[in-house]
Amino acid sequence: MTNEKMLRVNGVDLCVEAFGEPGDPAVLLIAGATASMDWWEPEFCERLAAGSRYVIRYDHRDTGRSARYPAGAPAYTGHDLIADALGVLDGLGVSRAHIVGISMGGGMAQVIGLDHAERVASLTLISTSGGPGDPDLPGMTDALRAAFAAAPPEPDWSDRDAVVDHIVAGCRSCAAPGRPFEEAEVRAVATRAVGRTTGVESAMKNHHMIGGPGRWRARLGEISVPTLVLHGAEDPLFPLGHGRALAREIPGARLLPLAAVGHELPRAAWDVVVPAILWHTSGGWGRQADVLATKALAGDDPTGWFERLYAAADAGEVPMPWDREGPREPLREWASAKALTGAGRRALVIGCGLGADSEYVAGLGFDTDAFDISGTAIRTAKARHPASPVRYRTADLLAPPAEWIAAFDLVVEIFTVQALPVSLRREAVAAVRRLVGPGGTLITVMAARDADDGDEDGPPWPLTRAEMESFATGGLSLVRLEELQDPRLWRAEFRRDDPALG
């Protein structure tokens, strides 16, 4: 079952299908010449959508179920195909999207990035060129040129099996010679594409006859959006030099050569390509955290987004969150000013993430426990610090192990409470307070806001002065509350003199 629908775009009907949730960042997939949406396989689209993307694929004119023209007489140009891509976004109510284009679709993506930059969040250019035919760029390989020269006559276009064989043979010629050709998978896609296409002869001929948008290579330096170039190391049509040129001539572009990949997007490359696209379109881990937190809150799972974010980072789909080589500066500054030493006393680091603060506290001589609600974060921390004396474990601040209650001489709480929704704030503050043992110290650092500031969309959800002072109940007393700048933060120290629990 599909979610295909027809959109009226620029006076013609185009077939479109979307995966994922419309509120997620949009990714528009633009196929190559003669290719219907089928060549962006559903599983590929679903893997992107699983990374919290709204993935859109569509049939070009003359492919799939979209508008058909007589074979050899296309009444449209390359400019129309580019306008169609934008029209698909308009029809779905998408003002701005990450554009992913392969081959001809990659050329279209470049022109969209140049002429319609306001509609483009990023570009991913796959197996394409900024100047096909330019003398300073490598031409097609001798093997591909020979395959084209020896190509058999065109098939009987009414014979679907013959057409599928014809398409598979062409794909074989463009595949990487250094990897077994995925014939079964390619044949399955070709069969679906032929079965959906209303005029196969038109699909296979007309795109090669239309006028393009002209030459744009000299303008590549004007592209201002983040650009990722994915290019097969064994591409016989546009050898890797084309990808290198794009990455060199587009400001800030990043090239990721795909080993054992030709002019194609084989399943064997998906484990590299999907994470690369998700990373590139994430907007950084902070933006991805916002997306995941919004979904978690809507699903009544306010802490679930931490593990999803770390897991995405572990899969290479987003930069690793809260990744630092050393401790947070407010903690280091506070400990240095006090000439703090542990002397074997017990410490607990809340929301330890990848372990930088925990290792610092242990280095001061504390017998240190550290926890995070994300199992992936804990596994990563252990892997990064294999000889560490810190006892890392997965745990929930709102339901900590019973043996931790009132057990620590030092509790370090930095940025965890602010990452939980305001509805959980009182419960979270009380949970932190209970961990401090008799005579123990709590050091906490949070983003600051004024009491009369409007509610902020988190995470984070900064704290007011009164909310910081609310830690000082249940036997804890406030020693010092400081307001730091650049960024604006609270740093507070509390001490428990009364052994009674909060």
Automatic annotation (TrEMBL):
Cross-referenced SUPFAM superfamilies: alpha/beta-Hydrolases, S-adenosyl-L-methionine-dependent methyltransferases
Domain (AB hydrolase-1) ranges: 25-153
Example GO molecular function: hydrolase activity
Sorted UniProt keywords: Hydrolase, Methyltransferase, S-adenosyl-L-methionine, Transferase
Keyword ATP-binding included in the entry's annotation: no
PANTHER family, sorted: AB HYDROLASE-1 DOMAIN-CONTAINING PROTEIN, HYDROLASE, ALPHA/BETA FOLD FAMILY PROTEIN
Protein name: Alpha/beta fold hydrolase
